[in-house]
Amino acid sequence: MKILVVIDMQNDFIYGPLGTPEAAAIVPKVAEKILSWTGPVYATQDTHFPDYLQTQEGRILPVEHCIQGTNGWHIAPAVRAALSAAAGRDESTLYLTKSTFGSRDLAEVLAKRHQEEGVEEIMLVGLCTDICVISNALVLKTFLPDVLISVDASCCAGVNPDSHRNALAAMRTCQVNVCGE
After folding, report:
1. Secondary structure class of 163 (helix, strand, coil)
2. 152 CB contacts (<8 Å, ≥6 apart)?
3. Is 85 left (phi over 0), alpha (psi -120 to 50) or beta?
4. How do residues 113-142 score in pLDDT, each as one tens digit?
5. b/e sequence 31-51, b meaning 16+ C-beta within 10 Å
């Protein structure tokens, strides 16, 4: 079985205070990837709360974003529509909120699924390549060292193009399969 994981395709990372032209450019590609995927799809949502600026992340990155319930927290409309279509064809589509870059919950859910059904590959797409995509790829590699962890570079964007490329190179070094370049 192959699983697609859509990382943090949220309004604040695309059109909001942390948005970039590169992030906006991948929205149709990510939606197309979801619609053409034939296996289970999981999606993460970066989730913060009104006290964000008092957290360690908030002190280092003092830009309020992805505050639960706000428009910026929601998944971008085109991606959300594609995820809804995927949920209609595969009941295992699952949304996971996360308050950290990498999601232990995602890794635990996928490790359990691998134990029960066997997972051949986990493909990651989304934002930001150099923060949450790389963090989740490495967490998944830690929990599932013998499962192929892949990242479709054409469906990812970083904080800027250089950090996107650097993250892809770092993931390759850690035995993450990078495709779609």
Report:
1. helix
2. 33, 123, 124, 125, 179, 180
3. alpha
4. 999 999 999 999 999 999 999 999 999 999
5. bebbeebebbbbbbbbbbeee
